[in-house]
């Protein structure tokens, strides 16, 4: 049975479709003091394997994940698989300053206590998988991003904002079946959060450009990347990411930078989540 956290309900339904596993109904409640309470509505229907699906986009979503694992075990599940379509705190993969935690390790350890196995989608760094204390693997859903792109892109150029994300741009380009790949050079000032992007060398004039990344969070990286194309004569500019976090005014930043359309998967449920990563996860289950 698939048991969704509140932030991964569409993903869980898509996973149920893709696997044929039943989708359990879960209630999400809160005590007057603010503490959370999830409840599996038909615990008797929980079978031997429970699949907890939690996009841990917030502290509450992390808590729900831990509660669901425990509720599934209480309901008699013998094996618990935890699917994290989006792993929150995944970008805090080292202590960036004295006195700071390795937050992804802290949450990975907590999640490991209630599960037999973890599957996640495009973690920011593969190294975070090692923080889990149970078998953990990552699914690459970047290829799915080719699907919603317009079919008639003109000599498309797939760009990643930095060299680290070039694999994702290559995967999208290969799945799209046309165009070329290049990357920008990105530097981030960790004190101020400011991002500076320098353009790559690739010819852009009169070409459709798709800027591809693993995640759009504040939109600073993407919007700076797109602004750096100003004056180079690109035709249409699109963005595509696996995890459309789109925090704060990210959508406005992208729109004012000149983006035609944003595409994302459903690892984080947003209006731009036009394609599902669930079929790729289903293959690994
Ligand atoms: C960083 O290396 C990632 O690949 C993303 O480029 C970054 O995390 C996006 O964050 P933001 O949208 O806040 O710039």
Bound small-molecule species: ribose-5-phosphate
Q: Secondary-structure element sequence?
A: EHEEEHEHEEEHEEEEHEHEEH
Number of helices: 7
Number of strands: 15
Fold topology:
Blueprint: E1 2-4, H1 9-19, E2 26-30, E3 36-40, E4 49-53, H2 59-74, E5 79-84, H3 103-112, E6 117-121, E7 136-139, E8 157-160, H4 166-176, E9 180-183, E10 185-188, E11 195-198, E12 209-216, H5 220-227, E13 237-244, H6 250-257, E14 261-265, E15 273-275, H7 278-284
Parallel strand pairs: 1-4, 4-5, 5-6, 6-7, 8-9, 8-12, 12-13, 13-14, 14-15
Antiparallel strand pairs: 2-3, 10-11
This protein binds ribose-5-phosphate.
Task: Provide a descriptive summary of the structure in words.
The structure is a single chain. The protein is built from seven helices and 15 strands. It has two domains: 2-140, Rossmann fold (3-Layer(aba) Sandwich), CATH 3.40.50; 143-266, Rossmann fold, CATH 3.40.50. Helices cover 25% and strands 26% of the residues. The radius of gyration is 20 Å and the shape is globular. The strands form four sheets. A six-stranded parallel β-sheet has the order 9-8-12-13-14-15, sandwiched between helices. The protein starts with a strand and ends with a helix. It is an alpha/beta fold and 285 residues long. Helix 1 packs across helix 7. The model has no long low-confidence stretch (mean pLDDT 94). The structure holds ribose-5-phosphate. Ribose-5-phosphate binds at residues 91, 161-162, 164-165, 195, 213-222.
Summarize this, please?
25% of the residues lie in helices and 26% in strands.
